[in-house]
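hey so i finally got around to running both of the ones u sent me last week. sorry it took forever, my laptop kept dying halfway thru and i had to restart like 3 times lol. anyway pasting them below in the order u listed, first the sequence line then the structure token line for each. didnt double check formatting much so if smth looks off just lmk and ill redo it

first one:
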Amino acid sequence: MSYENLTLVYEGRTALLTLSRADKLNPLDWSTVKELKRAVAEIEAREGIDFVLLTGAGRSFSAGGDLDGYIRLYREPAEFQAFLEDFYDMLVGIEKARAIWVAAVNGVCVAGGIELLLACDMAIAGESARIGDGHLNFGQLPGAGGSQRLPRAIGLLRAKHLMLTGELLDAPTSMAWGLVTRVAADAELIAEAKQWIAGMETKSPVGLAGAKRLANMTLDTPYEEGLREEIAFVHRYATTEPDATEGLIAFKEKRAPRFGAPKES
């Protein structure tokens, strides 16, 4: 597929996905959201891609929506609803994807940008990153899941602080609050994100996808139900996936595991 607002490059088991409208601070307008939705589907359908490294070109991860576009959409309620549905589908697609999505946050990440970040599985920030909700700075409200994902990620009081004040956090504070889990020098941001991925490449792809699914169940599954589902899921994994047994045998034999090998007949 070809994209106008994104660049998508495959590198081994990783898809490198970049928001590429640097001159506009990588806005998440409707055309970009549609392209992201297509990219999510393309990556998920491509065999052998287990990781996605998502970042922004230039000095911004994403500064959020296209304000001029919103003014037009607000006058067309049906179109605005369709836009919100596309944004919803794209972000849920990231959450439900088999691949592990890693956000490398460079520069400004606000409004729709933080909503995109929150759908990813892991996040690392460059030292110059500034991250926040920011919607109310322009009289807006988060409409792509930010009001629901943000409290789950950092707690209700901190989420309301960011939503109500519009404050942007620096990279160390973003890490302390749990929006990202590491801060890197700007020049080393992508390299460090790739190091994360290289470490995960030594693990079972089926196990990685399973761990992502189990963790994400906490978003919408009652506690007791989640505990029972964990038992059922792990039982299926351990008794049907060769990687579970291979990992134990490799540890016993003091060698690196050979994950992904076909089942013995």
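and the second one:
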Amino acid sequence: MNEGAQSEDRIARLRLIRSDHVGPITYLQLLARFGSAAAALEALPELAARGGGRTPRLATRVTAEQEIAAVAKLGARHLFLGQGLYPPLLAQSEGAPPVLIAKGELALLERPAIALVGARNASAAGCRFARQLAHDLGAAGAVIVSGLARGIDTAAHDGALESGTIAVIAGGIDIFYPPENEARQRAIGERGLLLAEQPPGIEPHARHFPTRNRIIAGLAHGTVVVEAALKSGSLITARNAGEFGRDVMAVPGSPLDPRAQGCNQLIRDGAILIQNAADVLEAIRPFEVRVAQPTAPFAGAEPPVDTSDGERSTVIALLNQTPVPVDEIIRQAALSAAIVQTILLELELAGRLERHAGAKVSLLG
């Protein structure tokens, strides 16, 4: 593919990703069926009509070109799933974002990574431990991945800034959040690596953080949790790591400290108890074997096929507002996986279906 064709393909891919109701699984299904993003864009209105909804808003060429220019002006670049420097471990994860915006040292994506996350209201001792752990792991050759939040995340980035750290942020790559981490975010963009799923200018909202957590877990060979309450975003990251087949590790704490209850619960449920960097390295080695894993993106489902009104009615009758595994729908509908996945795709493009973690779906109210 020559440079002009590559540019057109990137624009079409970005338009497809930024169009209404096109999530990661839908994106891959559309590419599998139609062969290119441009062809998928042409087919979207008809597919949405089959799902019984209004025509989705398609991102325009002008919008895509403006985003590409804005990203370049920031000294960043787009990384598309299945192409070039897209992180190979993340590409294997269910729901991997179709595009990331990256700024900084892209070579860090080629090194083994460990996620280090924890409480925002962390104790001084917890932050000191996280900083030292990140430093020691970095000295051993690992890249530290975290979410640039207050507390443990901040300490982890500080400990690994010299050896290599990746910050995954919930908003646009030019948005500084939390505000007090602006200098730290700038430093990581120059000496480490910043990654964002959202376009420039997008402020982080609550709905963005679960996806940010999945990216953190997907990038890393294993996730270490240092201080976390029982209802904590760090535990979501740990659960994501487990779903991806990665190691989940936790630092134990006093049962009298609420900030230790989440870690203690993880250990009780089977997470690896961590006391120092040597424990982490023992859990995730050998790096070389894991890095050599296949890098094909998660396929999610078979390519879409033609469907009938009767098949569509059968699938819709099995859905409601309660998330249900796609495999269960396939079993109860007594239809092929390709037919069910296609109907779900049509419903999603029509704005009638929501996808959840763990390959579950539900009807929107």
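quick thing i noticed on the 2nd:
The domain at 112-291 is CATH 3.40.50.450 (Rossmann fold).
anyway thats it, ttyl
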